[in-house]
Amino acid sequence: MTTVSAEAKVQTGKVKPAKRRLSIKSKQGLTGLLFISPWIIGFLAFVAYPLYRTVFMSFHNVSFGLKTGWRYKWVGMDNYSRILLEEIDFVIEAQNFFVSTLLYVPVIIALSVIIALLLNRKIKGTSLYRLLFFLPILILNGELMDNMSTYGGMSIAANRFILETLLMIIPSSHAVMLIVDLFELIVQLLWYSAVPILIFLAALQKISKDMYEAASIDGASPWTSFWKITLPMIYPLVSVCVVYVVVFLANFEANPINTIIMESKYDGSRREGYASALAILYSAVQILLIAILYYATRSRSSKGR
Amino acid sequence: MIKINPDKLHRDQLSFHLVLTVMSVFMALPIVFIVNHAFKPFTELFAYPPTFFVNSPTLENFRLLFHFSAESGIPASRYVFNSLFTTTIVILLTLLVSSAAAYALSKLHFKGKYTFNKINTLALMFVPIAVAIPRFLIIKNLGIFNTYLAHIIPMLAMPIGIFLIKQFMDQIPDDLIEASKMDGAGNWRVYWNVMLPLVKPALVTVAILTFQASWGNVEGSSIFMDDESLRTLPFYMNTLVAQSGNIVAGAGLSAVAGLVMFVPNLILFIILQNKVMASMAHTGIK
Questions:
Q1: What are the coiled-coil residue ranges (chain A) (predicted)?
Q2: What range defines the domain where residue B137 resides?
């Protein structure tokens, strides 16, 4: 790279100023493309082309015979109308997913900002806490979660000891169940917030201490300096985390929609075409969710400044 | 000095400890569960209501695992090797490809940059389960069916990796790059010697995520391979559980398989996690 740019300088020194700019620009463009080319190739082959195939198949009835190979029969919007109008499983799950994600994401972001702030303090033993808070990153993928929910690892209700202690304190069993449910939800959301915590923590550690010092000399309380320094500094990362969390929740293996898509592939009446249409509708739902959350967080940031 | 980091222990700190301890107990629950679960005898595996902690730990499940793996034709070490080998290469290549692309998208100027960014973000939202068959067709057409490449190459296109690294690179001021260019560094040097060290936390995060994706990936073994000796550990674990043909033995096996698949994750994580923290503290940018 060094030799190329050096050459460019030597060459451009001789030509007219009007041309010089263009040539540097195109050189820059070339290096940019060079850096990104491995990704482009991988992307075209394993993301873009499959995506195109999926769109293609969603308008077809796909079948596979040992002798005939793959057969595609054009059915137009049939798959889509079946999903949206005739069969109800996807629509219901998509609604659930939409509403719950819309509620979960703000809680996850708030939780992870708070935890990141706590972890950013220099207290004895923070490194151990940090380790513990990132651990869920490891578990939340794969079938471990599945295993846990099947064998009751997730539910505190399964643990009689805690349940009975709670019943001793609070007499109404309805109230206890409410607390237990709420509690389980929060624990789950805590698990989901591992990567956002990591992102926020990295941002927090880059904030200069001088700023806080200057603010405290000017008489700002820690509370004000949180709102005036910390939050604006980490705010750009909120939308990053929003995108990450929504995508994570959507691709999560325990998500029922993924199971529907998987099962549709092998269902005789549905097949690959139907599953492809499901996948496309599902991405549309995700895009809508991210658009809503992204603009919700964005407008506040511009107001704040 | 600033009030933010008190050096001595006082009342303020105690409440932090309390909050963090309570929270970390819940964060650690799944791990405690996995370990406990693997040691449960079958009476406890099927107990209703299910138990969280094991009452009478036994190694029976591990014995079953060895028993069944001794019966299969290919030694388990082969699967372990395949998994380790492909995962290592996937991590290295993913980091290289994603960080190079992220550098270009974040700091270089060229035509179509914004379009690429948009495309990458949109690609995030696409469920990978849906594309198994088109991917299979590509693997077939490329002629890498039944090779290690079929494990590696499909894993490399990881939009989330570029996304995360790019966000970290966006935070690095352009002045730093200009300064190093003044000192005679080319793009490659800026990328390798300036940018990469600064975004280490993001790189390590992506490495951990990639490790998980690749380590637990069964798609490669079940769709892109039909040579048994090229298949990987998670696939093997799944087949063991399925082949045992016995619900009781299957549950015990899957509990142990969960633990076996989890331990390397944990080890790598503990090693890398220290690196994240160490590097974040030493970044030159404040």
A1: none
A2: 74-243
Cβ of A138 within 8 Å of Cβ of B128? The answer is: no
Interface test with A, best of B34, B95, B133 (most A CBs within 10 A): B133
Closest by Cα among B166, B169, B167, B175 to B197: B169
Task: Say how many domains are in chain B.
Answer: 1
One-letter amino acid at A143 equals E
Is residue B97, in this structure, part of any structural domain at all?
A: yes
- CATH number for the domain spanning A101: value is 1.10.3720.10
A220: contact with B, CB 8 A cutoff:
no
Tell me the H-state helices in chain A.
2-14, 17-43, 49-58, 78-81, 89-120, 126-134, 136-139, 144-150, 160-169, 173-192, 194-205, 209-217, 222-225, 231-234, 236-251, 256-266, 271-304
Q: How far is A245 from chain B (nearest CA, A)?
A: 11
Which 254-273 residues of chain A touch chain B by CB within 8 A?
A: 258, 261-262, 265, 272
Determine the residue among B110, B237, B267 to mutate to test chain A binding: the one whose Cβ has the most chain A Cβ atoms within 10 Å: B110
A139 touches chain B (CB under 8 A): yes
Structural domain includes residue A116 = yes
Rounded Cα–Cα distance for residues A275 and A261 (Å) = 5
Burial (CB < 10 A; 0-12, 13-18, 19+), residue B273, is buried
Per the domain annotation, does A97 fall within a domain?
yes
This prediction's pTM:
0.76
| ipTM topping 0.90 | no
B70 touches chain A (CB under 8 A): no
For chain A, the domain total comes to 1
Contact B108 A32 (CB under 8 A): yes
Residue B194 lies in a domain: yes
Identify whether A40 is part of a domain. Answer: no
Specify the length of chain A in residues: 305
Please give the Cα distance from B164 to B99 (Å, whole number): 10
CATH of residue B170: 1.10.3720.10
Q: Over the stretch A22-46, which tens digit does the pLDDT of each residue have?
A: 577 777 778 888 888 888 888 888 7
Residues of chain A above pLDDT 70, percent? 76
Residues A163-197 have pLDDT tens digits of 666 667 776 777 777 777 777 777 778 878 888 88
Residue A212's domain comprises 84-304
B249-279 pLDDT per residue, tens: 777 787 788 788 888 888 887 887 766 655 5
Chain A / chain B CB contacts < 8 angstroms: 284
Which residues of chain B lie closer than 8 angstroms to A47, CB-CB? 123, 126, 131, 157, 159
Residue B130 to residue A278, Cβ atoms within 8 A: yes
Q: Is A124 on the interface with B (CB under 8 A)?
A: yes
| Residue at A102 is within a domain | yes
